[in-house]
Description:
This protein is an all-alpha fold. It has helices at residues 17-22, 24-46, 65-91, 98-131, 144-184, and strands spanning 48-49, 58-59.
Amino acid sequence: MEGGAYGAGKAGGAFDPYTLVRQPHTILRVVSWVFSIVVFGSIVNEGYLNSPTESEEFCIYNRNPNACSYGVAVGVLAFLTCLLYLALDVYFPQISSVKDRKKAVLSDIGVSGFWAFLWFVGFCFLANQWQVSKPKDNPLNEGTDAARAAIAFSFFSIFTWSLTAALAIRRFKDLTFQEEYSTLFPASAQP
């Protein structure tokens, strides 16, 4: 068998960056990576304020340090997760075992679904804390654009990670078909 896009027949070939960057899951992963940079960068740079009457900085989201900490933590960890799975996307064509490919895709499904959930929680948490923030805490509206950007990109991240999980489910179905085909029609039986 000549091997499909996800079968062992494609394993061991030369690395093709053009093919890699054209794959939808790779594009979504890069977009998720950029969104995570925007979220944690916005909060780290402008998410903390200090007033002239207080010596310590406070979080722009209703003075709740947990909101800023959650946004930064989720953003940084999502950034690292994107890098890890981008490396897996590069290495994936070199995996010759269909079972190992299935494990990689199953982990992608689980991790992407988990991150979609974490971004949903983050969006709800940040939006709620922003909604109940008091105008007297920030009379000059410092950092409000960054706070809104973190909320917006948290919302967008829900969809990018959900779509990544959906694409991983499709890849898993393709791998399952490839495994069943290989079982029914072994390579030695073909002319």
